[in-house]
Amino acid sequence: MKTAELYDKYMITGMVAGFVPLEVEDATGSILTGTDGKQFLDCFSGISVCNAGHGHPEVVAAAKEQIDKLVHCCTYVYYNPRAGEFAKVLADATPGKLQQSFFGNSGAEAIEGALRLAKQHTGRNEVIALTQSFHGRTYATLSITGNSGRKINGGPYMPGVSFAPAPHFYRCPFNSATEEECGERSAMALRDVIKYHTSNNVAAFIAEPIMGEGGIIVPPPNYFKLVKEILDDLGILFIADEVQSGFGRTGKLFGIEHYDVEPDIMTMAKGIADGFPLSSFTTTPEIASAFKPGDHLSTFGGSPVSCAAAIANMNVMQKENLPQRAEQSGNTIMTAMRKVQEDCALIGDIRGKGLMIGIELIKDADKTPAAAEAKAVRTRCFEKGLLVGVGGALANVVRVQPPLTMTDDEVGKAIDILTQVITEVNAA
Ligand SMILES: Cc1ncc(COP(=O)(O)O)c(C=O)c1O
């Protein structure tokens, strides 16, 4: 049976709007090869996961070495050496006082754990998130996701969740004239949400430092500083969801470093181990101490193989200067696409940091979202051998999130294809 037939017959696929005709046989660096031998330049990294490139030899070697020794370890009462070692690596890499980690398997699992810890530490039970956010597909993480498109038919959701407006300058709900004004007004709106929408029992505010699924929304530079002041005044914890923005993606190791703010808890997954399943929530010893015996556990969390891969992944990040490379390649792509924008009414906005780039497509001067056109761009790019994503709350943002290891030639090729395709779709 062909893979597509196996999928149709034996897999639950009703939630997929449509598969593209690509069966991935293998992948190296930024290149995916299909079972038919066709090659693709991957500018989506398996939804922003393989930051160090597909199958980085050092990550693969570390995992293979670990597989020969120990694949799984009971996570409850025995010590798993690789988990301890990786926890130290994270303590050294994350900002300031974040020193202790709990390992799970997925982003959603990390966030579920972080929410529970925040509630136990503060003794409070409410949470605030941002509109247009995305935090996962489990009950609690969908409850704090600010996008009805993702939540449809799944409710009613967890009580005690309120939403503050996304700090989104291009589509600012306050029509701010400057980024600074947008940052200020969005932070003040969060303060109002706490005051008017909650029962004043808020444990945590959770936000993505750069919002991925919402359409690569980059909060204004002043936003998180203002927010943190408000939260600190009220004893509310700040959870930075770095699941997508972490591990060099934005040009710094973690997205929140662009804002010079220290979160109280950080959640991570995706790029943490270059494709091996692993997640973490990482916090201060004081907050971590809220967990008492029996409070939390994950059978597969912190797998020795994933932790060995994660340690190697972090070494690669440093050795190959991946955050800096992301910044350089990202600037090259954004500068080139801004040139294209000068003669292309279809491009409304180009934004991002490092290699977390969104190209928002619009139909007219009123910024009517061009969702069908964004889909057409993805399809035509695919036909020309380039994989990009489409996302955003309005489904009109082309997402460019390649491996950070992309070569200059590959960056040039991605720019050429994107330019050709967007120009064609604009003309059509
Ligand atoms: C910011 C953010 N948080 C959480 C998640 C959920 O991660 P996972 O799919 O690994 O559960 C995602 C996934 O896209 C994400 O982008």
Question: Describe it for me?
Answer:
By secondary structure, this protein is α/β, with parallel strands linked by helices. The protein has two domains: 3-55 and 321-427, Aspartate Aminotransferase, domain 1 (Alpha-Beta Complex), CATH 3.90.1150; 57-319, 3-Layer(aba) Sandwich (Aspartate Aminotransferase, domain 2). It has 14 helices and 15 strands. It has helices at residues 3-10, 45-48, 57-69, 81-93, 107-122, 139-143, 148-151, 179-197, 223-234, 285-288, 304-319, 322-341, 371-383, 408-427; strands at 24-28, 31-34, 39-42, 100-104, 126-130, 161-164, 202-207, 237-241, 265-268, 279-283, 347-353, 356-361, 386-387, 389-391, 397-400. It has a seven-stranded mixed sheet with strand order 4-10-9-8-7-5-6, with helices on both faces. The two termini are 39 Å apart. 50% of the residues are buried. The structure holds pyridoxal-5'-phosphate (PLP). Pyridoxal-5'-phosphate is lined by residues 47, 106-108, 111, 134-136, 208, 212-213, 241, 243-244, 269.
